[in-house]
Amino acid sequence: MCRQYEHAIAITNRTLVKGDFLKQMQKVIHLRPHAVILREKDLSDEEYEMLAEKILEICRESGVHCFLHSRISVAHRLGCRRIHISVPLLLAMSEEERLQLRSDFQEISVSCHSMEDMNIAVKNGATQIILGTIFETECKKGLKGKGLGFVTEICKACPVPVYAIGGINMERLPQVMKAGAAGGCMMSGFMRLA
Predict the structure, then answer these.
(1) Is 167 strand, coil or helix?
(2) What is the CA radius of gyration of the chain?
(3) Which among 21, 85, 123, 145 is placed 20 to 30 Å from 130, CA to CA?
(4) Global model pTM greater than 0.70
(5) DSSP per-residue letters across 95-143
């Protein structure tokens, strides 16, 4: 295992990849990050499902966990037991749907931006939290990062692993882990990896 990536989650974004996206993902997945979250929000369900099938296969071959992003029905059809969702999506569900989510998925990853979000996520079965935005990023220019103190505060209160997102790179990964995070999420670092 390439140990330097074992605490990193790769968040996909095809638009950042120069060249073939699947080849880039093979390269990323072979580095054995902790997990991959297949984001690709702009795709139709049909397009997303075709791509997810390929990414899930590459992840299976390398023993890397893959979370589908918000596409619960696609995850069901493909037999994927890991899902990443937002707090608004979680809150839009009925109590019955939230119970079904916990029953259907082995792991539930939830994006959180506050202590309140974290509490909602954990109460509703989150097995990991993606906490942001920690540092200012290219994709959210002008949005001030919440900083390492925020990571420490949430990690002290959170009973499940917390992965920091927003401006995380291999240099900042040790900083967020020292603040209590299980690791960090990276998008451009993986999508632009040579």
Answers:
(1) coil
(2) 16
(3) 21
(4) yes
(5) HHHHHHHHHH-SEEEEEESSHHHHHHHHHTT-SEEEE---S--STTTT-
